[in-house]
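Journal club side-thread
Mid-discussion, someone asked how the predicted structure for our own chain would compare to the paper's figures. Pasting it here so we can look after the session.
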Amino acid sequence: MLFDEHLSRLLDAGDDDAVWQAYGETWCIMATDLSGFSRGVAELGIIHYLRIILESERLLVPLIERHRGKLLKVEGDSLFVIFERVHDALNAAIEMQRAARAWNEGKPGRDHLLLGIGLGYGRVVRVAGADVYGHEVNSACILGETFAHGYEILVTQAVRDRIDDQRFEPIEHVPPGADGAYRLEYSLR
């Protein structure tokens, strides 16, 4: 069951403040997506892409853990991760993109890991340790799954506001609930 009995009672009572007090936490949220997954499955079949998903997990999960990220769940070709510190999330995202580029070298295009990453930061409702809900969660998912292409790291204004040592370019696609959205400028090498 997704909601525990305590949370269910608070939601039924309409007590928003009590929900935030009991379940509210602040996290940096990472949502990833493998670009071209649906189109590739239609062309090459699901077994081919299951292999790519397996390889992406083998490659990326240790990098997430090295940067103190907590993998909440895997859904299809997407990873949902939380980090206590925005810098850890950003460093993990850069290292993940570099690892994907290194993995892709010498492989045919159909075997490439083309990773899109979205990052958001803010207060969320964390349920059962395995799910998070909130504006920044939605924004990270929209940026990572809808707008980010291979090798892109897109972030919300809340993430951008906490990073002084990187360059960002504004993008036109600002998810609902976010004050702005940016593409991180970084080197793949």
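Post-session note: The chain has a mean pLDDT of 93.
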